[in-house]
Write a structure and sequence with these properties.
12 helices, 14% strand, 290 residues, single chain
Length: 290
């Protein structure tokens, strides 16, 4: 991560915590020992090298003066792992089937660029089948997610397939199945029914985070059964994401139907939700009498 006020490249290490991640500081990757250095952007290539654009300026803040920045000193650095050479590559020469297989490549660059090309070309039944076979055959969750994103990007992710993946053994796959089913804000009725079951029974707080996100893209009148199951999960009261995510999905429900708001108030043991529900119901009641 570029630190423009610290003339260095920091390392932040994501560590799973509850429903999400928190960042832990690692040792700095690079310190330029020069206050003018301001790395603004970084890119990596297929050989594992990183390219850094250094604005390099005595002034580190924006202002309105025309002469406030020195535009003559910009620099570009290339950071290479050991003596790794640069080799040309053109993924456009691959067949679509070959681009699908690149989703299993050890270098994320190949998977990402191949996915972009596949999205530009579009998919067909043969490619959809290839992706589903690879999905079932790989043990890598990272590869499964790449394949899932590819399938969705080329138009092969169906409601039927998503419903099946909502029951997958891995929490990240279940979460992304929910994400993709709700992309167009019109999930099928069986998905809503299954969402309520997961809200009540799924052991993964990460999945519950995605459920709360999906609810915010669900018609307000369809949210209550899922919300009632979610907000009864008192074990989420100290999570750094879930109580507020539940509230963002719940607020329009409480505002639209005080009966449902009261039911949620009675069923939840999450203190901040009880506070917010009571406040929202009181505000609505006062507004209706004025």
């Amino acid at each position: 991560m570029n630190n423009i006020h610290g003339q260095r490249i920091n390392m932040d290490i994501p560590v799973r915590s509850g429903s999400g991640f928190v960042g832990k500081h690692g040792p700095d990757f690079m310190n330029f020992n020069d206050r003018w250095s301001q790395v603004l952007n970084m890119l990596y290539d297929h050989n594992g090298s990183a390219y850094m654009i250094d604005w390099y300026d005595a002034n580190q803040c924006h202002h309105r003066r025309e002469d406030g920045h020195d535009r003559s000193n910009g620099r570009i650095y290339k950071v290479v792992y050991k003596d790794e050479p640069w080799t040309p590559v053109d993924l456009r020469a691959h067949s679509s089937a070959g681009l699908v297989r690149l989703q299993l490549h050890k270098n994320e660059w190949y998977a990402l660029q191949a996915r972009k090309l596949l999205m530009a070309r579009g998919g067909d039944a043969r490619l959809y089948r290839q992706i589903r076979i690879l999905f079932d055959s790989t043990d890598s969750i990272a590869h499964k997610l790449r394949l899932l994103w590819t399938l969705n990007g080329i138009g092969g992710f169906t409601h039927r397939y998503g419903l099946r993946l909502m029951e997958h053994e891995n929490e990240y796959v279940r979460a992304w199945a929910i994400q993709l089913l709700w992309e167009d804000r019109s999930p099928p009725k069986p998905a809503l029914e299954k969402l309520a079951i997961l809200a009540a029974e799924d052991s993964s707080s990460f999945v519950r985070l995605y459920i709360a996100s999906a609810l915010q893209r669900t018609q307000v009148e369809d949210r209550f059964p899922v919300l009632k199951a979610l907000t009864a999960r008192d074990e989420d009261k100290d999570d750094h994401n879930l109580p507020l995510m539940y509230w963002y999905a719940m607020e329009p429900v409480v505002g639209a139907d005080q009966g449902q708001g009261l039911a949620l108030l009675k069923s939840t043991g999450i203190p901040i939700l009880r506070q917010y529900i009571a406040r929202r119901m009181t505000t609505g009641a006062l507004a209706s009498t004025n």
